[in-house]
Amino acid sequence: MRNNNAAQTVPDEPLNFFKEDRSYRPDEIADALKVDRSTVYRLIREISDPLPAYRIKEQGQLRCFGRDINKYLENHKVQPHNE
Fold first, then answer.
1. In this structure, is residue 32 part of a structural domain?
2. pTM of the full structure
3. Residue 10 in domain
4. How far apart are CA 22 and CA 17, in angstroms?
5. 23-69: per-residue pLDDT in tens?
């Protein structure tokens, strides 16, 4: 008989939520992460540890590589407290 109340361990694997070689617009990132677009722009503008981004043309739209987003999320992953 299986105990459904037993604590399950989650493997500590790197996040690969976004395709590594694809570029994403801030609105696509916001939709995928279920946050407001302004949150993504704030992460990009963060002075101490920004989400890496680039512009397609001078004054053009911002883009972020999936590998950079995955790495950023991995580095900022919140560990749940042991209960």
1. yes
2. 0.75
3. no
4. 12
5. 999 999 999 999 999 999 999 999 999 999 999 888 889 999 999 99
